[in-house]
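README: folding subset

This subset contains proteins for which both the sequence and a predicted structure token string are available. Records are stored as plain text. Below is the entry for Listeria/Bacterioides repeat-containing protein (362 residues), shown exactly as it appears on disk.
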Amino acid sequence: MKNFVRSFFAFALLFSSCETEEPIPTYTLTLSASPVAGGKITVFPQSPNYKEGDLVTLTPEPNEHWVFKQWEGDGTGNSTPLSVVMNSNKLIVGVFIKREYPLNLKIEGEGTVEEKIVTNPSGREYPHGTIVELTPKPKEGWVFDSWSGDLSGSESPKTVTVEKEKNVTARFKEIPKFYLHPNGVTCMCPNTKPGDKGIINGIEYESVDNTLLSQRLRDGVDWSKLCTSLVTDMSRLFYNWDIYGCFENWDVSKVINMNEMFYQAFFSDEYDLCSNDIGKYWMPNNVKYMSRMFSKSSFNQSIGGWDVRSVENMNGMFSDASNFNQNISNWCVPNIKTEPENFSTNSPLNSQNKPKWGTCPD
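--- output ---
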């Protein structure tokens, strides 16, 4: 009987050991933020290991100027918070992006604003901290005036840092059809048509081109009231004339040809009554041809300050000019390597006052 009892308990113990439960699996949860500067991921509950079936809650916490975008790795979508059932080792990445802000551009007047990347992106959004270069582009006949809103001043181009929503206004103003050059003398009218008229400081001016200029000179009008910004050819304009009018305020910036302009012209006493400082106010920087321009004339005015670097032909420019002996030694003449033919034959112009051919003195 005792042996039976012992056998029974031994069998029961053996059976009981076979019924012992297997241990519950545990898993790791690895979290990361992309990029690291974008923020972090908090987890609840926190543990180095989780049992199978544990429910974990993940919450993204973006840094300033960043926003959470989505989950990657073993996480998907963009739900926040994200609930995760731990049934395996998991690697979950929280993706952050820089917050975007709108750069709102407003235009006053006629023109556009070009950005460094795109043109006219009114309402376009930029990531925080983006530096945008703005360049105003006025429509023809207009000029950029100033910035307002989140920019000020009149610099062009100008940069703006988009660290929040920005509102910028670009102001353009219309260029008057008739106006004075900054030198205060030269009449400018580049945006006119021949025959257009305009008033500057109470004086009416008429815009003329090549043809209308010649006609108005024959008509005997007041030369000083002609605006010549459209004129490109003044060759032989005063050929064998008595110069009596005032024209120091003429705009010659678009003139290409001045060949024989004052050939055999006589500058009368009436001319001397005008200041007519064409040496100071004329800007012949685009003229290519000055052949015999003052030949046989009585002209003798200082023109040493002229920009003649575009001139290609000065043959006979002062030949037989009975009075001229002004200092033009500082003329920039890179296109004319040697003294032109008959440049100053039979004139009092001495060698010290002549240009240094082929050079452009400081």
